[in-house]
Design goal:
Elements (H helix, E strand, L loop, with lengths): L1 E5 L11 H14 L3 E7 L6 E2 L2 E6 L10 H8 L4 E5 L4 H10 L4 E4 L8 H5 L1 H15 L5 E4 L2 H10 L6 E3 L17 E7 L6 H6 L2 H10 L4 E5 L5 H6 L5 E5 L3 H10 E6 L8 H8 L3 E4 L7 E3 L5 H13 L1 H15 L4 H15 L1
Parallel strand pairs: 1-2, 1-5, 2-4, 5-6, 6-7, 7-8, 9-10, 9-12, 10-11, 12-13, 13-14
Antiparallel strand pairs: 3-4
Helix pairs in contact: 1-14, 2-3, 8-12, 11-13
Amino acid sequence: MKILIAHEIFYPEVSGGGEKIVLELAKGLLERGHEVKIFTSGDPKIKQYEGIETVRLPVNRYLLSLSLPLISKHTKDCDLVQISTGNLTFPAFYASRIHKKPSVCTAYHLFGPFWKDVKGPLIGTAFQKFEKSYLTRDYDAFVFMNRYTEKLGLDAGVNKGKAHLIHPGFDYEKYKPKKMKKEPFVLLVGNFAMNESMLRVKGTYNLIEAAKMLPETDFVIVGGGSGIENLKKKSPNNVKFLGPMKFEDFAEYYNRALIFCHPSLSESFSLAILEAMAYGCSVVSAIDLGQKGIRIRVKDTEDIANGIKHLLNNTGKTISMGRENMKIAKKFTWKKFIADYEKLYQSLV
């Protein structure tokens, strides 16, 4: 098959975990004998990355919505168009329809009604309407990476009969959990760009309010960014901030933490949860990767606090959940991820 992948940013540029997922998909398909081309933004002089052919437009990613004439040229000779939600969604979809090619759309960063929390009531409403408009196009298939995001998409109007759940893989061999006694503290791992908007997206303020309700429980937050100092001012004494850290430095906290709390409003997938699972943490989150722990309602501080309290009061069971999570994490392989996509593509071409 000749597969055109439309993703608005691609290596060597990176904006988040989506680029890693697209890279692994493209590499895996090439290894299985398919031809792959990636249509993206960036320096047009970069014609390939790790053997993957790329077509790059020298424009800001937000202007890619105007790229229909250009992406249409590359759609003509492909067998299938793989689309990521974002600024390339509309041009890639309409190019697929013009040339009568099957299209598969993969959901990244859906927020549904939570756009208002991220962008405010007016702008957030506009973003929610825009999101709904591209989710409800007539793709031949729609892929979600976790059950929670799938529900957001179906609630917005994605055709349930065309919805598929395909989990990305991860490099399990790089995680080396040590046999350490789990300690009764709660860990949250953010990123290097925790501004006010990102803190809301990650549900961090809700976690801080839950910490106030559990003054005898220690909370540890890893991450940096412009919003952290303001967050510190609103935090009780039982919250410890470690700042931005490299993975090899904060892996020790995954190893030691009994509970990993991830109260995000939404996630495309959530590598952080999978990492915590690999280190034997029990998980408190609304995001559903099939992990063991407590499933919470987003933005519900009391639900977060009650979930954490339940796990702390049932330590034996919580430790068992963490051990089960280690077994579950091993099942998330890139080999299965590629095979699932290939099977889906073959059913459409």
